[in-house]
Amino acid sequence: MKKYVSRLPIVGKTFLRADYVVLALHVEANLLREIRPGQFVQLKAEHTSSVFLRRPISIHFVDVEREQMWLLIHIIGEGTEALAQCEVGQTLDCLFPLGNGFTMPAQAGRQMLLIGGGVGLAPMLGYGAALAAQGHTVTFLLGGRRDVDILQYDEFCKYGEVCITTEYGSMGERGFVTQHTVLAQRRFDHIAACGPKPMMVAVARYAAAHDIDCEVSLENMMACGLGACLCCVEHTVKGNVCVCTEGPVFNIKQLNWQL
């Protein structure tokens, strides 16, 4: 797949919390159509003198009609802080689209469960929208410690049923995503997950035990995004591979998670 390096104008900025911001970038429709759910971008943080490497950010949502690509940024360091300080009208130096995305089912009318925890919910919105557009039934299962960790609930509701778990029971069911009652009440054809590794491993074990096809989006630390620096290597059944080029999405059967 062809990659582009472009200065993309910021056309929207929304703080969801003090440490989470959604940036909407203008991208031509013909380029947006090439993006697959689950892919990511590498953004250059230009307004700081101490951050030299691009920052990998999941593609949150693609709106072809409005020619927008949304990026959900978790502000956790100087690089993401610099990106969050950018304002509408400025441009971002962006390398995209990178990596391999989630599988789009070949069969029609599949029951799809999309699980997101923390910033790992970022790729699930765009994936859910793409699946719903193809006629699949989408169920989102979003987890967090507290209700304030469940971001963009209304946006997710546009594309499917939304189930919630919080560790303290302040929203949805109390517990972890693998404890939600929807897993016992319904049979799914495919599961996709992104979030903290312990959560993804637990989801993968559930999927393996119930013979459900499952993909996970890994969040290994990245630098170049092109497979040159070997920073994001993951040990798989095929040996060591770069998550940025072979992933970030992997079928759980490819991973050495000892399920």
Please provide a brief summary of the model.
The protein has 259 residues and is an alpha/beta fold. The chain has seven helices and 15 strands. The strands form three sheets. A seven-stranded mixed β-sheet has the order 10-9-8-7-11-12-15, with helices on both faces. Strands 1-2-5-4-3-6 form a six-stranded antiparallel barrel. A two-stranded antiparallel sheet has the order 13-14.
Query: What structural class should be given to the helix and strand makeup?
Result: alpha/beta
Strand fraction band?
35-45%
Helix content: 10-25%
Low-confidence stretches: none
Describe the structure.
The protein is an alpha/beta fold and 259 residues long. It folds into 2 domains: 4-98, Elongation Factor Tu (Ef-tu), domain 3 (Beta Barrel); 111-254, Nucleotide-binding domain of ferredoxin-NADP reductase (FNR) module (Rossmann fold). Helices cover 19% and strands 36% of the residues. Strand 1 and strand 2 (20-26) form a beta hairpin. The longest helix has 13 residues, at 197-209. The two termini are 32 Å apart. 42% of the residues are buried.
